[in-house]
Amino acid sequence: MFHLILFLFFGAICVAGAVNLLMQSHPINSALSLVVVMGSLAVEYLLLGAEFVAAVQVIVYAGAIMVMFLITIMLLNAGKEERSHGSRVAMLLGVPGVVIGGALIAWTILARSTTDSVSIGALQGDPRGIAKLLFHAFLLPFEVTSVLILIAIMGAVVLVSRPEAVVRSADSSPVRQPEPMIKDRELVAAGKDH
Amino acid sequence: MNITTFIIISLIKSAAVVGVLLTAVAYSVWLERKVSAHIQNRWGPTRVGPFGLLQPLADGVKFIFKEDLTQPHVYKPLYIAAPIIAVVFAISSIAVIPFGTWIQVGPLPVVGSLGTYSQITDVNIGLLLVLGITSMGVYGIALAGWSSNNKYALLGGLRASAQMIGYEVSLGLSLVGVVIMAGSLSLREIVDAQGGVFWGFIPRWNVFHGQTLAFFVFMIAAYAETNRMPFDLPEAESELIAGYHTEYSAMKFAMFFMAEYANMITASCMATMLFLGGWHGPIFGPYFLRVLLPVAWFCLKVFVFMFVYVWVRWTLPRFRYDQLMAFGWKVLLPLAVANIVVTALIVAWRA
Questions:
Q1: Which of B75, B128, B158 sits opposite A71 (nearest CB)?
Q2: I want to staple A42 with a disulfide (CB 3.0 to 4.6 A). Which of A54, A78, A118, B214 is the partner?
Q3: Is the preceding omega at residue B109 within 30 degrees of 0, hence cis?
């Protein structure tokens, strides 16, 4: 009973945070609302019995990824959004979309409520169980996903690094000038000799 | 144990632990001032009480009665929330830290015989919980830097968040070896796994039991996590005035101060539990001594770590920012990963 009250309470906080995320006009406030959503989701996981997922949710999403979001917003110095009066297209497409989506979710919940519901604290989400699943049953998908993330990281490194030839020519010239680097690259791209 | 007794015992334990923690925070400031003074051949606080022992009280009174300035250009809601966030997350991780063994209080008049662990609560993901709570602490610093609407504060906040996220990776990975050795994430079970001795005199603490490298990686990463010398770039006074707390005064400034020292105490408790055997030590004598000695050993080890914190601060110079990043990602992280691989191979080979 006490668990159910807590579950509903944090569910309400989660939804309120999500609504606040959309209502706030300043990006920092929106990002902090997202932190609230993630924190209350972690409590919901904890109440369902998935302790490890709850801890990872806090450490990875709330503690690392959202901090990166905050840093980006701070560095860009993003200001307040201007309030518009809404577009007619959004109203025409959005309201029926919300109604249809809500109806679909409600129908799914009502139609399958007896078969797949999880009672509170029933999940076997301790670290040992999760590790058995990750490293026995789902070893290949797990490793493939980590290779995928590695490729994404390497792609980011390649995108931000300067081309090798340009770096070398800039380093060998006695006086460093910022402009010729770009010119060199343009000349190389155009296939001209200088 | 029925629900009423449980609630009463929990309340008593929480009050005792929080009281001890806050007193320890106040006296670690005294320790810092005293040790730094002696390192610099001065006396430090001597006027208030014997050995200046009442100095924290005087500091507290001073902070409360100072003028609490709020600059007109700050973003008020977050400016006020930031020190609260910092203090709350710094203090709350103490809830899962075990200080000693089972305590049994003899037959009492109304409730009879009561027993409890000297720990507020034991959860089976205790280690992850502490890491999660400390990782949330970065919000206090980042938001303080941003909401102050001041270039130096913003730079300090950005430095702090980049540094804390970067070193958190090494910190977490250095603990994986300990978790593999203990086979559990519960802090009490990790400490229990370190009981006993080798060859009759060397204690089976993790630091002597194959995790020496992890211990040093953890210590260095913990210094960076708590923004202490030689990693105190977020508040480097020669570059950034005071970093993220430039615009704060009076009790709001004192709350950042408290958060820093509470984080140091948490890091010292973690190092004690995970690498130095927690409350394990020579236990002897009558029953009350056998209950109190483990707590005393725990406190002694934590005190040693706090002393080293202060000692390092007044000994080492500050890193440059690129050196800090290069050291974290190119030295500490590979060392921590190598420690995991070697530990896992040895444990698997023995099993």
A1: B158
A2: A54
A3: no
* Chain B: closest CA distance from residue A128 (Å): 9
Q: Are B150 and B143 in contact (CB under 8 A)?
A: no
Q: Does domain A1-81+118-139 have CATH number 3.40.50.280?
A: no
Q: What is the pTM of this model?
A: 0.82
Q: Enumerate the H helices of chain A as residue ranges.
A: 2-23, 27-48, 51-56, 66-76, 88-111, 127-132, 139-160, 164-172, 178-190
Q: What ipTM does this complex have?
A: 0.80
What confidence tens digit (pLDDT) does each residue in A110-146 have?
877 665 566 666 666 677 778 888 888 888 998 999 9
Contacts of A58 in chain B (CB under 8 A): 132-133, 135-136
In the structure encoding, which two tokens stand for residue A31, read together? 């990002």
**Could you tell me the residue range of the domain that residue B325 belongs to?**
70-94+124-350
> What is the largest distance, in Å, between two alpha-carbon atoms of chain A?
80
Residue B239 resides in a domain: yes
Residue B306 CA, chain-centre distance (Å), reads 9
A121 touches chain B (CB under 8 A): no
B252 CA: distance to closest CA in chain A (Å): 21
Looking at the structure of chain B, the number of domains it has is 1
